[in-house]
What does this fold into?
Amino acid sequence: MKPTLPFNATLNNVAVYQPGRPIEEVAREVGLPPGDIIKLASNENPLGPSPAAVAAMRNTLENLHLYPDGNAFYLKQRLAAKLGLEPGNLILGNGSNEIIEFVGHALMGPGADVVVSQYCFAVYPMMAQLFGANLIAVPAKNYGHDLPAMLAAITPQTRVIFVANPNNPTGTLASSSDVTRLILETPSSVMIAMDEAYVEFLDEPLDLVSLVRDGRFPNLLLMRTFSKIFGLAGLRIGYGIGHPEVIAALEKVRQPFNINSIAQAGALAALDDVEHLRRTRANNSAGLRFLEQSLHELGLETIPSAANFILARVGDGKRVFDQLQRRGVIVRPLGGYQLPEWIRITVGTPEENHRCVTELKSVLGG
It folds into this structure.
């Protein structure tokens, strides 16, 4: 018997997000021990979480019968100090995905336009559809954001423009001049939601925090995460950086206690683990160089990446993904991103990178 519940009509157009497959699930499916499988699908930190974060999280366990600090006082204070901001410039989310959802609650709805790039993070279109907004997808340029074209696509009904820099899933980096122009010329009535999930991997990132600090662009919201370089993806914690009045509006749609005690403790300790960040950057830089060179030696086209992953054009992405998975290597097929000929490979440890290339060579026929 089918349900006759009157579901919201907007759900008809919303796809279910498909994450990178977990190791345990693949192990059951292909019949391999979990220890024989490597996951290079979700842009996670191959070095694991910060040791300081692990120690701090263990110290919270005996107090799990108590609700967490709903305002995350200590974490906000530390973040604000590191960024040169006030705690009122910050909002915490259950992953940066929840920050995107806050934006949807606050600004999207029927009649509103949302501008994105062709190859953008899947959650942006999902949120627009969920809230009944009209999605304007601007064709990509060299697989990345065409920011001048996105600026030109803004209409009187536009409420949000999403830009990921570096971009997921393609790893492309928009030029500083194009980003600056976008911020200068976007109408003040349009939120610029700048997703900086991978910004810590850049050697010379464009400093947008200073624009929030001086208050000249109250429509600019930066979104960051502890999932990537900090290695805390399992905690689900991210944050938004913006004008205090914008943050106050987003706080109205935030669920109470959305950041648990363990996540707060882990993030707080990870912020100051400079050595873990240094090792992660070094591993990523060397890994990107190795993967790019090795993929080119296999005759594969790649897209220059500024993040912790790289795309490779392998022909039938789904077939290659399936065959690698049977060999114990999980990568990400990109058919859902309109890139069916490509796979995305996260930078792993040196051993994981070598194994991935070896297995890919076998799958492609030597």
In short: The mean pLDDT is 96. The longest helix spans residues 274-297.
